[in-house]
Amino acid sequence: MTATDAVLGAPVERREGREKVTGTARYAAEYPQPGRAQAWPIPATVVRGRVTGVDTAAALALPGVLAVLTHENAPRLGAPDDPTLAVLQGPHVPHRGWFVGLVVAESLEAARAGAAAVRITYETEPHDVALTASHSGAYVPDSANGGFPAVTEHGDPDGAFAASATRVDVAYTVPPLHNHPMEPHTSTAHWDGERLTVHSSSQGTSAVRAELARLFALPEDRITVRAEHVGGGFGSKGTPRPEVVLAAMAARETGRPVTVALPRRYLPAVVGHRAPTLHRLRLGADAGGRLTSLVHEVTTYTSRVKEFVEQAAVPARVMYGTPALRTAHRVAALDVPTPSWMRAPGECPGMYALESAMDELAAELGVDPVELRIRNEPESEPDSGKPFSSRHLVECLREGARRFGWEDRDPRPRSREEGPLLIGSGVASATYPVLVSPCVASARALPDGGFLVRVNATDIGTGARTVLAQIAADALGTPLDRVRLDVADSGIGFAPMAGGSSGTASWGSAVHAACVRLNGRLAEHSGRLPDEGIAAEADTSGTAGAESPFARHAFGAHFAEVGVDTVSGEVRVTRLLGVFAAGRILNARTARSQFIGGMTMGLGMALTEDSTMDPVFGDFVQRDLAAYHVPAHADVTDLEAHWVEEEDDHLNPMGSKGIGEIGIVGSAAAVGNAVHHATGIRFRELPLTPDRVL
Ligand code: MOS
Q1: Which residues does ligand 1 sit against, CB inside 6 Å?
Q2: Where is the composition biased (Basic and acidic residues) (predicted)?
């Protein structure tokens, strides 16, 4: 084994780990330029209507208050791509919590006091925020998110279902869910003449820069966006959010650097959430346990600001072989905050429903649920007919079953009691697509023997900079510590965001190409390097993202064990084990963290995470981390992630599939299926809180 064989895949520690644990890593709120002001936004206190009056006199009289911006005096902006960014541009209120003002002050406390002193009056209209499966406003959209057709159909799903020997016809509900990253959405902006510099808590600086250019009518080269450290995002920072627009606006109006750090309780309304999904599943099977029909129909909502259609029926197009298949989405536009991306959008809620229904079918058939999935393994991708570039779902199921001790399981529900606890176990499959986008990168060999690699990647806590350094070291054939890396600066060049589990593939392909090109230049060069070194650039826009003749997806299997307390109704996950097939694993340490992070988020989805839309008040009830409980250490007893070796030459130079999202896909179904096994009762609405379970 050579030194470079070892670098890719090695469990390398993250490069910024020390900075993070010693508190020296700087986040977007932590750039205190001289004269920096702070700002506090004002959310609308009605659901639907318009602002009829603004009285800022009392606020402006408070010590330290510099300015109050509302639609009456805020600068007019250009049209953004994303209409949720058109803040303070008019009196219209599309949902409760929409920002109607911003107070800028010398301190955060003064800004907050100023916001409380602004008097705003409204005219209201009746609102509708309640999603039902039969909502009269629900329609079939042109497409679901990701450009997927809203409806697909193969064979005769209704006829085949009616003729099936065994049938399951069930409805599942996933509530609205919120991303709630540790670091709330924050931006610090300052202007230097007609140059704008922003430190933003974002999953990608290129998209932020492009929107700011549209909004402020500036050429992109006058704007710099940096996101050196980001405290999580889970999709909610995948697109620019109102705070970056407000910060840039306030900085221009006051002539001061301005930080806008959104208070956590304002996040649920303005930075997106996973839309609720109502699922109807109809599964028909023959006597041999083979699917004869699969119908997955989803109803969801979007806001009145823009259309967002959670593509939750899409994974049913990938998973199982069946002669008859229908998948369909309907959406209703309601007076709700705009839903957006949340970890494994589409796959996460869709696979909760599909994998729960598969468990019901296994029970109806009297077939082991692992075996049922293996029996329905397709020859090619069911919807497209394309061959899979690689698919090791069966290996994940078998390896997971072996590690979990599945064969010792008594299949009868409610067969295991320990004192007040009912014990059960469950299984579910996982899938997530392989995505990749164009990116630019450069690599420079320096006279001191080191290398400088530059790519506008964002490290949102995943270890991206570490893995990219490994990719570069591998391609250059140099020890890892010789590679320096610059990331997270829009000035470096175009890069896609950290999202869609595509960051490493997209940035890494460009880094790899730049390093290979540099190797070529170095081979031609003999003797001492010039002072500035020798450099090479790469731009993957000609190749990355092109349509593949293969269906490319990662797969996985989750196994859960639960204890259900018959006295309190509390469900505890005592064990959660995942096995994944995701191409080549590039860093065993950070990959494991990604898998178990996703699984933990799935555990929260199963048991505690819940955003309830109050139909009268028109807002989410849970607006802090006390009411919206994400799993803490005490909730996670025994969690393991493993992977099977998978070689796939149809992916990218590294042979990797994305790993950021697949951990959450299917994990809630595994927990729910375990609760059914423990109790004999099928709960079809998440989360499985004591009030539902008892
Ligand atoms: Mo993720 S929801 O693709 O940032």
Answers
A1: 203, 235, 238, 341-343, 345, 499-500
A2: 12-21
